[in-house]
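SEVERITY: medium
COMPONENT: batch folding queue
REPORTER: lab tech (J.R.)

DESCRIPTION
The queue accepted two submissions in a row. Attaching both inputs and their returned structure tokens so the on-call engineer can compare them side by side.

ATTACHMENT 1
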Amino acid sequence: MQVKYFQSVSKAVHVYRHIDSTKSLNMVALQGSVKLQAIIWKEEDMFVIKEAFTGVTTQGKTIEEAMENLKEAIELYLEEKPEIATEIKNIEAVGALNVEITKAVR
């Protein structure tokens, strides 16, 4: 199972590089708006997308559908966990980084 996970991450990095950088997740947190980072990868005929901070994961037949599903899933998650919404609102993001690993991927 762990090997499959790392293979999926490898696929995710490949797909991620081909996504238009203007497509971002603008989520509503309390009374403001925040941008969250997500990674997306292809598994068989579906795109799987996972938001980095909350861990909320969903899928769709297209990248756009997966993103819309993720937005809805995160909104529902934040309604149930208002303390997380507050924490997200207070985060001062300074950027996103790609981290390359080699030992775990074989």
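ATTACHMENT 2
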Amino acid sequence: MQKKYPVIDIIATGNNIKSIMQSRNITVKDIQQFLGLETPQSVYHWLNGRNMPTIDNLYALSELFQMPIDAIIIGNRKYTPDQNKCNIEIYENYNCRSDLYDRMRFYLLLYYFYISKNRTSKVIS
């Protein structure tokens, strides 16, 4: 029986956390130390799909991985916050991307001021 409301796929989420860890060279011990866990068993339980991290741990993992929580969790909902932008590849260079947007805004402002300066400096006779 399929549920009518969106649910989280615990196994797929565990596999997603594994792949994120591999892509960022993060170990289970790194996560254990970052979260201040006594033992690594809970992290292994997440990776094997036995249970999910708590919302606090998901929040901390999103900081460690430098990606939103929605990019970590895999579920069956039809809505995605940025329509297909919640995958690892887009968030690989999360910080660099914001720098790129800042540079683009800067160049657009320069262009705007260049055009406005040239428009006002022309003298019509």
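NOTES FROM REPORTER
The radius of gyration is 22 Å.
No errors were logged for either attachment.
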